[in-house]
Design goal:
With about 110 residues, the chain is mainly α. The protein is built from four helices and no strands. The chain starts with a helix and ends in an 11-residue tail after the last helix.
């Protein structure tokens, strides 16, 4: 699936099942919430925090939960792009070009990354 197709599928789902998009500020808050949920899984899977014994996501060390949380973050980001008229394919291509022009030698020459 391309990014454009993902934006179209989310839009179709919203129109068929979601009634309408939440407002942009509500979706920004939801995005923040989803990023927090992803961060919680990351902190337990890769960081120093441990899983609670009662947390069912601990069984696979959060592998499935991380996949779900990343998809939730992407979902809300696609919603925000749709409702603000952003073509994420175009935006990503521009971002890659900007980073390439700005950082093409920066990381290669960074001794911290050697």
């Amino acid at each position: 699936m391309t990014i454009k197709e993902a934006q179209e599928r989310v839009d179709a789902w919203i129109k068929e099942y979601g009634v309408r998009y939440f407002g942009e500020l509500t979706n920004m808050t939801v995005l923040t919430e989803e990023i927090g949920e992803m961060a919680r899984v990351m902190a337990r899977r890769y960081g120093e925090q441990s899983w609670k014994a009662s947390d069912p996501r601990a069984a696979d060390n959060g592998a499935q939960a991380l996949k779900e949380e990343m998809a939730d973050v992407l979902w809300v980001l696609l919603c925000l792009a749709n409702q603000t008229g952003i073509d994420l394919t175009e935006a990503l291509e521009q971002s890659i070009e900007k980073k390439t022009n700005r950082d093409k030698t920066r990381h290669i020459n960074n001794p911290k990354l050697q």
